[in-house]
Specification:
By secondary structure, this protein is α/β, with parallel strands linked by helices. It is 42% helix and 17% strand. An 8-stranded parallel beta barrel has the order 1-2-3-4-5-6-7-8, surrounded by 7 helices. Helix 6 packs parallel to helix 7 and helix 8 runs parallel beside helix 10. The structure holds SN-glycerol-1-phosphate.
């Protein structure tokens, strides 16, 4: 990757563009089918690969990142569920702090454990305020974090939380309803948060249709992240990318 992820995100935010990120679960052994999927995604114009999960059973993180790097030039960004999910072969890492919750281990504990490894890895680290939003069901992210999500209708709490994150010096905000959420983050919440902060706003969790991607993009999302929907139906890829990037 020649340009830094941070400048890519800041440029997109500054010019009101939306990037499309495909989320890859590193729990599955990368096989021929995966190889094909990556090749197709890269040809279709996906902007970023996010790799990570709240809970790993079988950890193929390193192999997954290696396949991604060998097949395409699309930046590979770690989206770690814990301090264990670090590999130096990626391009960047979202250094997450769960600012919507009050679980000290996910606010600063895991980060203290991970810091020396991230430093040694040479990965570009993007300090990211991670905010779990209620998407109508308790996802793995909600359960594992043992935190209460921000109610989907409480836009003021979301805006204040994002603002506090920006004032604390974070470089990005991630609004997430969690993988497999019933409903994605509302356009109203995305718009209010995106207007309130000058840092990029990443949005994911439960986004499945072109309409939902387009609505998040129009509301000001800097990055739209889709995981499950593409695992279930890879043929959606081209239309989802087009809905995000216009
Ligand atoms: C979850 O934002 C991601 O952390 C993506 O969620 O798998 O529901 O698309 P989905």
């Amino acid at each position: 990757m020649t340009r830094s992820l941070h400048s890519l995100l800041m440029d997109a935010k500054g010019s009101n563009r939306t990037l499309f990120a495909m989320l890859i679960d590193p729990d599955k052994k990368p096989d021929e089918v995966f190889y094909e999927r990556v090749l197709n995604a890269s040809k279709a114009g996906v902007n970023l690969f996010f790799v990570g999960g709240s809970l790993l059973q079988d950890d193929f993180l390193e192999q997954t990142v290696d396949v991604l790097k060998s097949v395409s030039n699309v930046p590979v960004v770690l989206f770690p569920g814990s301090a264990m999910q670090i590999t130096k072969n990626a391009d960047a890492i979202l250094f997450l702090s769960l600012i919507s919750g009050r679980n000290p281990d996910l606010l600063i504990g895991q980060q203290v454990v991970a810091a020396p490894y991230v430093k040694k890895s040479g990965l570009e680290s993007i300090a990211t305020g991670y905010m779990l939003i209620d998407g109508g069901t308790m996802t793995t992210a909600h359960y594992i974090s043992q935190t209460r999500p921000i109610p989907s209708s409480n836009i003021a709490v979301a805006v204040n939380t994002a603002l506090a994150g920006e004032m604390l010096g974070l470089s990005a905000i991630y609004l997430d309803c969690g993988s497999g959420a019933k409903a994605p983050v509302s356009a109203d919440m995305i718009r209010a948060v995106s207007e309130a902060v000058d840092i990029p706003v990443i949005v994911g969790g439960g986004i499945r249709t072109t309409h939902e991607v387009e609505s998040a993009a129009k509301a000001g999302a800097t990055v739209v992240v889709v995981g499950n929907a593409l695992e279930e139906n890879p043929s959606l890829l081209q239309s989802l990318i087009a809905s995000a990037t216009g």
